[in-house]
Design a protein that fits this description.
Blueprint lengths: L6 H6 L1 H20 L1 H12 L3 H6 L11 H13 L17
Length: about 100
């Protein structure tokens, strides 16, 4: 599992973690509504032809997280031994 930070860091730096989450949320919301403005940002990273990038269908970034929607995936991953133990999806957002 990839962690953005440890539980210990999140506990000791609540404000930093909240501000980081807010910045990610605001960036996703902006990118979702300003697709044409994001193409110049995409090109250097992907080395795509500008015409291809302009004509492709864009994905959208989530601006919220519903743990209930992810829990069945976690449960299946445990069932098929892709991860060793189950956990509550809401723990992904928990800042103790």
């Amino acid at each position: 599992m990839v962690n953005f930070c440890t539980r210990d860091y999140a506990t000791k730096n609540r404000d930093v973690v909240r501000r980081f989450a807010k910045a990610i949320e605001q960036g996703a919301a902006y990118a979702n509504t300003h697709l044409a403005e994001t193409i110049p940002l995409l090109l250097p990273l992907t080395k795509m032809d500008p015409k291809v990038a302009t004509g492709m269908r864009n994905g959208f970034s989530a601006t919220s997280f519903d743990p209930g929607a992810l829990q069945p995936v976690i449960d299946l991953m445990v069932r098929y031994k892709e991860i060793p133990t189950s956990f509550e999806a809401r723990e992904l957002l928990a800042v103790p």
